[in-house]
Design brief:
Radius of gyration of chain A: 21 Å
Oligomer: homodimer
Order of helices and strands of chain A: EEEHHEHEHEHEHEHEHHEHEHHEHHEHEH
Number of helices of chain A: 16
Number of strands of chain A: 14
CATH topology of the domain at 84-111 and 213-392 in chain A: Rossmann fold
Structural class of chain A: alpha/beta
Distance between the termini of chain A: 70 Å
Largest sheet of chain A: 6 strands, mixed
Strand order of the largest sheet of chain A: 4-5-13-10-11-12
Shape of chain A: globular
Strand content of chain A: 15-25%
Amino acid sequence: MIRQITGARCTLCGAVTEAHPETTVCPKCGGILDIEYDYDYIRSKVSKYDLMDRGDPTMWRYMEFLPVEGIGKTPRLRVGGSPLLRADHLAREIGLNGPLYIKDDGQNPTASLKDRASAMAVVKAEEAGKTTIACSSTGNAASSLAGNAARAGFKTFIFVPSRAPKGKVAQLMIFGAKVILVEGSYEDTFRLSAEAIDHFGWYNRNAAINPYLMEGKKTVSLEIGEQLSFKAPDYVAVSVGDGCTIAGVWKGFKDLYAAGLLDRLPRLISVQAEGCCPINTAAAAHTLDWVPQEENTIADSIAVGVPRNPVKALKAIEESHGVTVNVSDEEILAAMRLVGRTSGVFAEPAGATGTAGLKKALEQGLIERDASVVSLVTGNGLKDVANAIRSAGEPLQLPPDMDRLLQALSS
Amino acid sequence: MIRQITGARCTLCGAVTEAHPETTVCPKCGGILDIEYDYDYIRSKVSKYDLMDRGDPTMWRYMEFLPVEGIGKTPRLRVGGSPLLRADHLAREIGLNGPLYIKDDGQNPTASLKDRASAMAVVKAEEAGKTTIACSSTGNAASSLAGNAARAGFKTFIFVPSRAPKGKVAQLMIFGAKVILVEGSYEDTFRLSAEAIDHFGWYNRNAAINPYLMEGKKTVSLEIGEQLSFKAPDYVAVSVGDGCTIAGVWKGFKDLYAAGLLDRLPRLISVQAEGCCPINTAAAAHTLDWVPQEENTIADSIAVGVPRNPVKALKAIEESHGVTVNVSDEEILAAMRLVGRTSGVFAEPAGATGTAGLKKALEQGLIERDASVVSLVTGNGLKDVANAIRSAGEPLQLPPDMDRLLQALSS
């Protein structure tokens, strides 16, 4: 047993079980588990000053808050330590008078926040004595697993629906992943992956089933806390799909607070696409009873009609006295341009969605204009160039003639 | 005058002029300039221990080696500080017995080494009192300029041939760059940009014309030196296009050596594509008389038939007792898979070209099998997904049926 962990508590029935590296869902009711910690112990082991003195710039600098004892000598990618950029130009343009920061998690090795979860999955797989890791995904979860596993010398099997874009599949294969294109729906794909994981005894990196993934994701908030000198912002804007990320963001802040390293807790701004917002719909009604929805949005990383971690996400929004905002695809595309132009950060659609929601929350008076805010960019725009083209508009085109150029620029 | 700079020396006629922020080519002969430093002064100002104690993880931690006095309070992207990854799996596969490291410069903010040059261009533009920066490029130079300039609040005009891929143009526009699609060849485009830069007095970020760009690029070697505890590797493998990068890499090592911070100088492995290798052809013949070539390679970032910095590049290869290797497109595509699978690093074709050349140099006995080597990855594979698809091969495809999966995996 790892000293700082006290157990794994079911988010549905509340039962507590011991946390093993292969612990997945609740043995009693099948609910999603949440790793619990001994914060008195953590508090006795680490102070603000200890953290600030550490050389390691990666997510592993927060070892006392993580469900691992160490990460051994296996090679790792450099995950975490992403920049927190003060964004005064952006604040001015959206009418925020308080300080605004962009946490650019698109700067992770495979260009998304999911690297934090996959890096954790690889370490836990190693603890469990596995040599192969599997998941079903076409998106950032898959590419981050493939990259982090390749670096550590693990084999990966990744199940994707056969309609998956060729570019995304190619990235996985470059990392040496064995990709299985399943002729069927996402449900079919998921089911086949689950059966194969069972059959072969592979390590399971399917989101929401594996409680350790969120423990990796929460490091983004540990970093934000430290980067803001352990003073919480008033709000943190996060785009929401299956709910794992916002739940992880919340847990990171709660951990810091529980260990006495944060002055207070921020409020979450939960941003979903208007075309697919089951979590925000339930959150706004203060209920855990969410209703599945269609997946009508260009922001594929958060196009999740049947969220896999709704309970943790809804509890996080409720506990933080959160704000919910839904944004249109047009607002998302505009936010991509806005963030790029004012801050030099290229975000994928889901990556710019948090900022789109922040802008709208200000317009609608849902948050105060003098608030301090962190807007989380969850993935790099290079992941989805097709939508960048949709967002960008048309350039100026002309013959190689100076007079024509002067004319065009003066008009 | 900045204290550590002694002047700007012409690489053709040898004349030395004063270095101003807007200094471009030699006023006497039009040759490319090279910024020169007072190494006794640098040596008196900075030691290994000073460097190791610095908190700043960016390229600006090497301030004493750079042609700037500071970078002021303007917002900056976090350029530099890219990981140096020990790559034992890769070494084993290519038959290298000595230590091998990948310097992953695809981890820069806009995903290429060119961020180092553009970050420098923005600071020098600011020094020169400019508010607009321009260049002609479709590639990494352009996107890095657009991103770094956006963050600092500069306007950018970027001239690209109208045949440029829409995705690359879109990235520039997301960063707020004013993109001008020129109906003509690259030469036409370059000429119109030069005329407009002259007319409007914009800051010029055209490679090879602006000597400060290389001063930014050299920081990659300052980092490698520090990351290897100030012990030089035997070889550094670099892909070569217009010659600016390899010249910058060499200058960084020479600077460290001249300042007494490196034990010796490494040898360069200059790698070009077989279909476009004017610099290697001249280097192998130990002449500065290079001959233009066609541009027949998939590695667009190094497809330069008329290199713009041949003299600096050729001198660098010669001075370092360098090795030249040319690789086929097939070898480049294979190296993308090799680097990805063994190391979890996704490189664009030009980014994997250095490693392709290292492999070939070992096979041909051009370098010793027990050498220590750094292979430089200059750009992220997400920049060029079309070639990742060409490299990746075909995945396994089957119906959602466990028996079919078992059958496929056992065959």
